[in-house]
Write a structure and sequence with these properties.
This protein has about 600 residues and is an alpha+beta fold. It is about 35% helix and about 20% strand. It has three domains: about 140 residues, Creatinase/prolidase N-terminal domain (Creatine Amidinohydrolase, Chain A, domain 1), CATH 3.40.350; about 140 residues, Creatinase/prolidase N-terminal domain (Creatine Amidinohydrolase, Chain A, domain 1, 3-Layer(aba) Sandwich), CATH 3.40.350.10; about 290 residues, Creatine Amidinohydrolase. The longest helix is centred in the middle third of the chain and has 26 residues.
């Protein structure tokens, strides 16, 4: 019996003891974070699937895992063995997890889950399913903990204060803005559970989650005071002093569950049901007034202030220098030295670490050669690591956290001769990226309105890519940040926000051919104002990312005159911005790489 099979068998024994028919294990922590610390990797533990997104459902006689298009190929490989049925989210004839539960749950059955890792909205869906089947839910069960020997502990990493020269706004002003939003919606209490919102508000950063410089914490904001629920051992004397000056009490991390039980009809509580966990929500007495809406901090932090924008531009210059130096290094060594997916990824991180102010990678690096690049979020391991040859394409999707901000960039690199099909696909991807980056639009448009601009070069050829075209980026925080995104399929009923001046969004179309190659080109874009006239305020984008796009993989004959002009103008910016920081040899190489076509 395999290790995963043993774990599933042990879980089913625990389910039987608790009379649970279906047990749900998401990829989540207590804060609905996208990436989680090692302690929270229960879904990976019980399935063997290591992707960042996915939910498992285990029943006594069946098991299934749902994940999105980024991870279909990876999940196929890692779920081999027949224990789990892979459910490809968004595909035709694939049931949602809720539809699957409703179909398979017996009359009077029980759905179990750890309510601390399930959102309020998700928990309510489980309630409805159980009600239809005249059954019930159990949200007080952490069954994985019962079978996970040597489970990693919760992180004890120290927090650090991000100074005003980086944030552009002190804690005092941020608290005032939040309190104004509370007043506008009639709330006198605001519960924050999402780590990025809390860290933005208190100008804190930490190291509790790999690649996300956040601090495990909860917060409650009142009219004239606040509570921060965090392990005090994480905080320096300076942080404690600043919190005290702002009338913020420091409370034990887990104490929030008992604190909210004390609320009553006198409390009007603003909370975000998408970010709050089900258990905490249900600890709030029913007599308290709940105002369910998006955290005001979500939009506040998405719109970068002038200090943040200035800093972010500096971070991208540093990052562009590091990546460009790496590309020169790679191009001049492939075929002459022994290089692998993992070794070149480590080398790129070495170039980033040489930049002043670098802290850590902003996500697990993707270094994918040839057919591996068709796996959208492939992560090379010692078992899959392959040698690079002076031929074909290497896709590298990487990023860095600097004190001046967060970066995210993808380049697909020709290591030698490239097939005509791959060259065609590379050119389509480049044209798509350029089209979106150079579009002009009236204020009021959101990312769903503009996504068609990026997809049109694909759709007119009967092609598509199975992920969003772009996502918001945090400031030394989550590399994926809402509410801004380029995505033509919006979540049903989701609140839509226009693209605002100061928002930063990635532009990253791609094309993936299983067993052959994968191509993605990604730049970050800053939303800025353009002209204003009788028709309204027009908006446009500015590039933040300055790294050459590999002309050796491009078919210029496929590009229109305007597209060539756009690429040439971008490459002129790259050379002008990056060349002063390069050696003479690197500068000469970059001049060739950014030549006009």
């Amino acid at each position: 019996m395999s290790r995963i099979a043993e774990r599933v068998s042990e879980l089913r024994q625990q389910m039987q003891k608790q009379q649970i028919d279906s047990y749900v294990i998401p990829s989540a922590d207590f804060h609905q974070s996208e990436y989680v610390g090692d302690y929270f990797k229960a879904r990976e533990f019980i399935t063997g699937f290591t992707g960042s997104a996915g939910t498992a459902v285990v029943m006594m006689d069946a098991a299934a895992l749902w994940t999105d298009g980024r991870y279909f190929l990876q999940a196929e490989k890692q779920l081999q063995g027949g224990l789990y049925e892979l459910q490809r989210m968004g595909e035709d004839d694939v049931p949602t997890m809720e539809e699957y539960l409703e179909e398979h749950l017996k009359e009077g059955g029980v759905i179990g889950f750890d309510g601390r890792v399930i959102s309020v909205d998700q928990g309510k869906l489980f309630e409805n399913i159980a009600h239809k089947k005249r059954g019930q839910i159990r949200y007080d069960l952490e069954l994985i903990d019962q079978i996970w020997e040597q489970r990693p502990p919760l992180s004890g990493e120290k927090a650090f204060l991000l100074e005003d020269i980086y944030t552009g706004e002190p804690m005092e002003k941020k608290l005032a803005r939040v309190r104004m939003s509370m007043k506008e919606c009639g709330a006198d209490t605001h519960i924050l559970t999402s780590l990025d919102d809390i860290c933005w508000l208190f100008n804190l950063r930490g190291n509790d989650i790999a690649f996300s410089p956040l601090v495990l914490s909860y917060a409650i904001i009142y009219d004239g005071s606040a509570q921060l629920f965090v392990s005090k051992e994480k905080l320096s004397g300076q942080i404690c002093e600043i919190l005290e000056q702002n009338k913020v009490d420091i409370c034990p991390y887990e104490a929030v569950y008992e604190t909210v039980k004390q609320f009553g009809p006198q409390n009007r509580i603003l909370l975000d049901p998408e970010k709050m966990n089900y258990a905490l929500y249900h600890n709030i007495p029913e007599c308290a007034v709940k105002i369910d809406r998006r955290n005001p901090t979500s939009l506040f932090k998405a719109v970068k202030n002038p200090v943040e924008v200035t800093n972010i531009k500096r971070a991208h210059i540093k990052d562009g220098v590091a990546v460009t130096k790496f590309l020169y290094w790679l191009k001049t060594r492939v075929g002459k030295e022994e290089l692998t997916e993992m070794s070149v990824s480590e080398k790129l991180e070495e170039f980033r670490r040489a930049q002043e102010g670098f802290i850590t990678p902003s996500f697990a690096p993707i270094s994918a050669y040839q057919e591996h690049a068709a796996i959208v979020h492939y992560e090379s391991t010692p078992e899959t690591n392959v040698a690079l040859k002076p031929q074909g394409l290497l896709l590298m999707d990487t990023g860095g956290h600097y004190y001046e901000g967060t970066t995210d960039i993808t380049r697909t690199i020709a290591l030698g001769p490239v097939s005509e099909e791959a060259r065609t696909h590379f050119t389509i991807v480049a044209a798509s990226m350029l089209a979106l980056a150079n579009t002009t639009f009236l204020y009021g448009c959101d990312g769903a309105n503009l996504d068609i601009v990026a997809r049109e070069p694909f759709w007119k050829r009967g092609l598509n890519f199975n992920h969003g075209t772009g996502h918001g980026v945090g400031y030394l925080m989550n590399v994926h940040e809402g509410p801004n995104a380029f995505r033509w399929k919006s979540k049903s009923g989701a609140e839509v926000y226009p693209l605002e001046e100061g928002m930063i969004t990635t532009d990253e179309p791609g094309l993936y051919i299983a067993g052959s190659h994968g191509i993605r080109t990604e730049n970050e874009l800053l939303t800025v104002k353009d002209r204003k006239n009788e028709y309204g305020q027009f908006m446009k984008f500015e590039y933040l990312t300055f790294v050459p796009i590999d002309l050796e993989a491009l078919n210029p004959d496929m590009l229109s005159g305007d597209e060539k002009k756009q690429l040439n103008q971008y490459h002129e910016q790259v050379y002008r911005t990056i060349s002063p920081y390069l050696s003479e040899e690197e500068r000469a190489w970059l001049q060739v790489q950014t030549r006009g076509i």
